[in-house]
Design brief:
With about 110 residues, this protein is an alpha+beta fold. The chain is built from five helices and five strands. The longest helix is centred in the N-terminal third of the chain and has 20 residues.
Length: about 110
């Protein structure tokens, strides 16, 4: 894995960690305790998991998500290939992005 991919994963999980407990009230932490927290995944005892997946269609195929989110999808170098590799899984797909011409703009026109 490239260092830029690791930095991207770390950035994504920092957002999840804020939601998970670094800034939460103690009662909320008690109500939703963690089962597992690693460099790439946060999982709660009551169910639910957030995992950050490295970019690249081949890497995504190794996972079986129920929901797949692309942030700034239009700007991802392999964004369209990644999206197409997830489609056969039946996952709910959420692609968010600021404007940019290309494959993402074409999808928004459909």
């Amino acid at each position: 894995m490239k260092s830029s991919e690791l930095a991207e994963i770390d950035y994504t999980l920092k957002d999840a960690r804020c939601a998970e407990g670094d800034n939460q009230e103690p009662w909320l932490k008690q109500r939703h305790p963690l089962m597992r927290r690693s460099a790439f995944t946060i999982a709660w005892e009551g169910g639910g998991e957030v995992s950050s997946i490295p970019s690249g269609a081949d890497k995504i195929r190794a996972f079986h998500p129920t929901t797949y989110v692309q942030d700034e999808a239009a700007w991802l170098p392999e964004g369209e290939d990644c999206l197409n590799s997830v489609r056969p899984s039946g996952a709910r797909i959420i692609a968010i992005s600021s404007a940019r011409a290309g494959w993402f703009a074409d999808q928004c026109q459909l």
